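Possible regression after last week's pipeline update?

I re-ran a chain I had predicted before the update to compare outputs. Posting the input and the new output here so someone can diff against the archived version. Not blocking, just want to make sure nothing changed silently.
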Amino acid sequence: MKPVRAVKPGKRLALTGIAITGALALAGCGGSGSSGSSGSSGSSGAELSVGASYMPQPVSADMAAGFLTITNKGGTKDELTSVTSDSAGEITMHETNGGAMEEVTSFEVPAHGQLVFKSGGNHLMFEKLKRRPEQGDTITLKLKFAESGPLTVEMPVKSATYNPSTGH
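New output (post-update):
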């Protein structure tokens, strides 16, 4: 599934930082998380929910990765336009292509489909952490969409080597 290709100029980064590489390489995909729903209640609108959310315990004091799956059971696509949290100064969305991550400003959530954020692929980067999250903590996120109302997600912090047995 291809994201909407809205790339911020000058935001193409190589995955060379130990903190980023460690967090992404050690993290698996899947896990448990909370969910919410948004959108209209018929099959014609987007019906969004979030699951399998988690953050591997960061190896860096100021940066972390996050993973989740957004499911749309509705008949209309939507677009994830931003992610915010009181735990970080900024959360950016990235796709990974050929060993390099590229920041994007939005991702499509297809009708009757999923947008998956997983290790080695689409992912969230928590930057300017206000404190280093520890295993067992929960990070609260707000996901904003182009058409649907926002979703609040509780993202558990797992061990840095967490590799879920189920998932993507």
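Follow-up from reviewer: compared with the archived run. The radius of gyration is 15 Å. Marking as no regression found.
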